[in-house]
Each structure stands twice: as structure tokens, then as C-alpha cells.
Amino acid sequence: MPRLVRFRDGQPHAVQRAAMSKAPGKVKRLRRDVYESELRRLQAELVKLQEWVRAEGARVVVVFEGRDAAGKGSTIKRVTEYLNPRVARIAALPAPTDRERTQWYFQRYVEHLPAGGEIVLFDRSWYNRAGVERVMGFCTQQEYTRFLHQCPIFERLLVEDGALLRKYWFSVSDAEQERRFRSRLDDPMRRWKLSPMDLESISRWEDYSRAKDEMFVHTDIPEAPWYVVESEDKRRARINMIAHLLSTIPYHEVERPPLELPPRPAPKGYERSPREMQTQVPDHSATLRT
């Protein structure tokens, strides 16, 4: 099983606390062939999980939190790669509107929660208030304190009502985060992932660390514990997170009726209209060297 840090009553176990006090050493990257083979197997299990969720009318909520560049987005992509977007969807909310700022804080997240037979993956969640809003001063002290009080109540209500809530914190070192930021600066395909807010997290590393620790103290509850995924190696993080998620849900393979392709009926005189009457996409592939 993957090494996942579990907290109880806001404090890590003594052994885990000692281990976490040291900066992580260099992590050996999982070999690509091993990674791809195991990822494929786990993704097949995710498809079985999806069918079970649909058949049972279950509601699954998965929260992804962690540092910027910790690997949350890439893990979500691997989770959803072969899933039906009508069953498994991603909730990645933008900054609240002026109207939403006047609502109860959890209100805009509630409308994205799953109905029966759905899985919702929150790419960041209501924990924005305990992280970026707290550190960057986007909320008042009163709003922050109210969040820490209400969040465990909110999550207990979700679980009590039958939702399967899983919360994952992706942990990455400051050195690895900076390395990933630098690689994005030089990559035109990923530069959009960087924002001034992301870069601000470098100079506020310790502020974010303290905010995360305080968040865990108040919100690591028995009904909805935090699971910490070590993310120095993104391949290992993806495998570990998916394997753990599957291990926490009592799904089983759902029997589906066998499907057979029907025989194609005999032609009845239909003729396709001339291609010249339609606007064709230019054959760009013909210009490529093969």
C-alpha cells in the first residue's frame, strides 16, 4: 500500500511527526513501464467503480488540495481519462463573483455536489478559505474563524447524508515546487499554468505551511480524514492516490448485458451528396513529411 499520512484529532502520530519534521530526500522516480502498466490496471478499476456508482446511485466527492504545482491537476486527468464525463466530472471553480461573496461561503460549492450515480472531483475546493484566502488576506479573520468552525459540521452533514467524501493533500517540497515552476516558465504549452498568485507562494512558503497545519488541526475529523500523498515523484503520487481511493470504496464489478452489433441493413438506394457541395476541412496532413 502507498505511504499515506493519516492525522487524528489534528495531530500526526508520533512516528509520522518525527518523519515529517525532516525534509524529504531525493525520491527515486518510478520507472515509466512500471508506472504505465499499473496506471492502466488502476484505470480499469476506476471504470468498474464508475459503473458501481451509477448502478448503486452512490455519491462520491473527492477533494484535491495541496501546494501549487504539487500534481493535483495531472492526477485528476489520469483519474478521469477513461471515465464517462456524465458520471465523473471535475469542479474547478473560478474566483467568486460579487454576488457569490454575499452568499453563505459553502453555498456555491453545494450546487456542484454530486447527485445519485455521480462522482465529482474538486480541483481545489472550499478549502480555498483556509489556504490562499487566509494567506493572501482575501478573507477577514472572522470569516476564517467561522470557516474552521463550520467546515467539520458541513462535511459531517455530507457524510451523514450518505456521500462518500475523500480528501487528499498533495505534499511537495519547496525545492521540487520551484523546479516545476521553472520548467513551466520555459514551456510555452504549460506557461498558462503560472500566475502571479502561484509565484507569490514561493515567498510565502512558511505562511502556507502554517495555514495548512492549522487547517488540519480543525478539519481532520474521523468522518472525513485527510490523506496526505507524497508528490515529489508525480508518477508515484498518481498511482498511490488512485490505489488508495479504490481501496476505500466497497465497489464491485457490475454485470452488464452483453452487446452485439446488429447486422447492417441492405442499401435502399441512398447516394451521398457530392463533396463539392460541402465545405471541407483542408487536408493539412498531406503537407506533412511521412
From TrEMBL:
Coiled-coil spans in chain: none
Keywords assigned by UniProt, alphabetized: Kinase, Transferase
Domain named Polyphosphate kinase-2-related: residues: 30-256
Upper classification of the organism: Bacteria, Bacillati, Actinomycetota, Actinomycetes, Streptosporangiales
EC number: 2.7.4.-
InterPro entries: P-loop_NTPase (IPR027417), Polyphosphate_phosphotransfera (IPR016898), PPK2-related (IPR022488), PPK2_PA0141 (IPR022486)
Family (UniProt): Belongs to the polyphosphate kinase 2 (PPK2) family. Class I subfamily.
Highest taxon, organism lineage: Bacteria
The UniProt record lists the keyword Transferase: yes
Name of the encoding gene: ppk2
Name this polypeptide is given: ADP/GDP-polyphosphate phosphotransferase
Oligomeric form and interacting partners: Homotetramer.
